[in-house]
Description:
Layout: H1 8-36, E1 66-70, E2 75-78, E3 85-89, E4 92-99, E5 108-110, E6 116-119, E7 128-136, E8 142-151, E9 156-158, E10 160-163, E11 168-170, E12 176-180, H2 187-192, E13 194-199, E14 205-209, E15 213-217, E16 227-233, E17 238-240, E18 243-245, E19 248-255, E20 259-264, E21 269-274, E22 277-283, E23 296-299, E24 302-310, E25 321-330, E26 337-341, E27 358-361, H3 372-378, E28 385-389, H4 409-413
Parallel strand pairs: 2-8, 9-18, 11-19, 20-28, 26-27
Antiparallel strand pairs: 1-3, 3-6, 4-7, 5-6, 7-8, 10-12, 12-15, 13-16, 14-15, 16-19, 17-18, 20-21, 21-22, 23-28, 24-25, 25-26
Amino acid sequence: MNVRPISGASVDARGRGRKRAAALLLGVVLTAVTACGGGGGGSDSETGAGKGKDADGAQSKQSVAVVSIAPKDGAKSVETSGALKVGADKGKLTTVEVKDSKGEKIDGAISADGAAWTPSSHLAAATKYTVHAVAKDSEGREAAEDSSFTTLTPQNTFIGTFTPEDGSKVGVGMPFSIRFTRGITKPEDVEKAITIKTEPAVEVAGHWFGNDRLDFRPEEYWKAGTKVTVELNLDGVEGRNGVYGKQSKTVSFTVGRNQVSVVDAKKHTMKVMRDGKLFKTVPVTTGKPGYATWNGQMVISEKFTVTRMNGDTVGYDGEYDIKDVPHAMRLTDSGTFVHGNYWGGGAFGNYNASHGCIGLRDVRGGYDSSVPAAWFFDNSMAGDVVTVKNSTDPVVDPANGLNGWNLSWEKWKA
C-alpha cells in the first residue's frame, strides 16, 4: 500500500510559522538595539563617532595638550645653564613649578603665547630638581607632566673673596668689590648672578678690572644710612669653560656718616668734611719731589693701629724700613697710606717730606690720643674717602685700591 505525504498546504503553514517567529525575534533585537542607541536616527556627526566624544557619544575628558620637559626624567650630570626647558603643544602652559632638593622654588617665566617656560637664572651644581608642569587645551582640559633630574658635579670651581665683610658699617666711598680665584672668561654670566639691593633704592652698576675683579658702586657716593644687600648666586655659574662657581651667600652692610677728607698737597693741609661741612683742618705732609702723592679720590680699605713699612716692598730698595708706623690706613694696593709720623719733625703743614704717603703728626708707639694722627684714625672708618689735589703726580689708577670713583659714570658702565 502506498502512503501519501501530508499535503503541501500543511508544510507551507509550518514554514510560515517559523518565519513569523524569526521575524518577531528580529524585531525584539532591533528594538533593543534602538533603545541602547538612545532612539537614534541622526547622522554620524551626532553619534559617538562625533569629534570630541568617546565611543558612547559622551564628551571626552582627556586633554589634547602635550607637555614636554627637558632634560628627560632621571637625567644625570645635566648642565646648569640652557638645559632646562618646558614646553606645550596643542595647548598653553598654566603652571610650571621647579624645586631643588631643599624645596626652594626656581624662578622662571611662561612665554606670552604659553608655549614655553624658561628659568630666570642658572641652576646650582650637584643638585636634584623636580619639575611639575600643567597645560590646558582650547577646551580648558588639563594635561600634566612630572620629571626630575640632577645637575653636574664640577671638577673645577672658583669662589670670590669680597669686601666689605658681612655686617660691616662703612664709609660712603666703599664699593662692593669681589676678587675671583680664577680668571673669568664669561663675565656677563657671572655678573648676572650677583644681585644688589639698596634701601633707599639707587642704581648700582658693576665694572670689571681685568678678568678677576668686579666692583659695584652707585653714580655718586652712597647716601649716609644706606642699607646694601648683596646676593652672591654663583653656585653653578660657568665662569670659564669647565670651571663653575660654588658660592651661594648673602652679604649685607650699612653706610655710616658722610666723611670726605680733602688733602691739598701745596698747602700741606687736610680738611675733614662731614656731611659737606668742615669738621676739622689737620696739617699734613705729602710726597716730596720725585715721590709725589697720587692725585684723585682714594678710599680707606684697611686700618692698622701699628704696621711695618719697608721700602723694599714698593720698589724703594733700602730707603726706609720702619717697623712701628702708628695709625696707618691703606689708600692704594701699591702702598699709599695716610698714617701717623713721629719722625717728620717740622714738616707737617710746612713742606712735603714723604715717599708718597700722607703723614700726620704722631708719637712713637701711638699712645697719645690727642695728636692729629690718633684723632684722624679714631674718626675714620673703612670706606671713607681721602681726596688729594694739587700734587704733581697723575690721578691714581682706578684699579689701584678701591678707587673706581676716578672713572666717570659713563666709563664705569661701559
